[in-house]
Amino acid sequence: MPKLWFVVKREYLTRVATKGFIISTVAIPLFIIGLIVFQVMMAARQPLHTLRISIADETGQLGEITASLLAKQKLPDGRPAFLVSHVYEHPPSPESLRPKLTTMTRRQQLDGYLWIPSGVASGQKPELVVANPGAFPMLDPFTSALREAMIATRLKSQGVRVENLSTLLRASGVRLIHLTGKGESEDRGQAFVIAIAMATVLYGSLLMYGLTTMRSVLEEKTTRMMEILVSSVRPFELLAGKILGVAAVGLTQFLIWAISGGLLAAYGFRMVRGANPAGSGFHIDLPPAVLAYAVIYFIIGYFLFAAMYAAVGSVVSSEQDAQQLQMPITLLLVGSYILFGIVMRDPNSSVSVTLSMIPFFAPILMVIRIALEAPPLWQIGLSLLLLVLATLGVIYASARVYRVGILMYGKKPSLVEIFRWLRYS
Question: For the chain, how long is the longest CA-to-CA vector?
Answer without folding.
Answer: 98
